[in-house]
Structure to design on (208 residues):
């Protein structure tokens, strides 16, 4: 990054340079650890959901579909290399996982989601390890509230989501093998229609 031209005054220079260094040091990124949904699995769900999309809810796009293992929030970018290393070590402790999208539910009348079947016990353990990796680098990741789900829509205000939940309750998707954890950066408002845009920073393989 190009540094600004500083005045000749030693006092002014010292003061402004310290402020500039502080801005650089405290640069933060918004991060989470995730399992991405494969394209063919996402396409199967998309075909089941497309008939129910309306203007009442804000529907998420197929390219953003994932299971969040641990949400880290704002993380100092100087800690990202350490977080990547810890996720690499954590991922190696777990086998690949057999998973399938299944059923539906809601959170607080604001989020409509599709659930998960399969190797849920090791998936929960993997989520706890991903959260612990974040905590060790100073991120605020809760290890106690993980529930595997894929958010397909959000309501702009509290909404009766029971009709949507009922419609999708019997959904059963194809089984796939999850073999990696992704560290993902969220760019708020940078995606289509001001949605978040997700950028995979690194991928951490499970042990197989």
């Amino acid at each position: 990054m190009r540094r600004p031209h500083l005045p000749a005054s030693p006092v002014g220079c010292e003061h402004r340079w310290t402020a500039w260094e502080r801005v650089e040091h405290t640069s933060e990124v918004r991060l989470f650890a995730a399992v991405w949904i494969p394209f063919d699995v996402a396409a199967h769900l998309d075909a089941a959901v497309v008939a129910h999309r309306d203007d009442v809810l804000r529907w998420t796009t197929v390219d953003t579909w994932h299971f969040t293992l641990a949400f880290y929030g704002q993380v100092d970018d100087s800690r990202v290399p350490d977080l990547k290393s810890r996720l690499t070590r954590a991922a190696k402790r777990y086998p690949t996982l057999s998973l399938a999208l299944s059923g539906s539910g809601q959170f607080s009348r604001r989020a409509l989601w599709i659930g998960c079947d399969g190797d849920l016990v090791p998936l929960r353990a993997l989520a706890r390890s991903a959260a612990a990796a974040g905590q060790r680098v100073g991120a605020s990741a809760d290890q106690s509230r993980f529930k595997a789900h894929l958010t397909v829509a959000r309501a702009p205000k509290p909404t009766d989501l029971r009709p949507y939940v009922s419609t999708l309750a019997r959904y059963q998707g194809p089984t796939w093998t999850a073999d990696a954890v992704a560290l993902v950066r969220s760019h708020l408002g940078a995606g289509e229609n001001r949605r978040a845009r997700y950028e995979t920073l690194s991928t951490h393989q499970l042990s197989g």
Q: What stands out?
A: Strands lie at 28-36, 58-59, 66-76, 97-107, 111-118, 150-154, 172-178, 180-187, 197-205. The helical segments are 10-25, 39-49, 80-91, 120-135, 162-168. The longest helix spans residues 10-25.
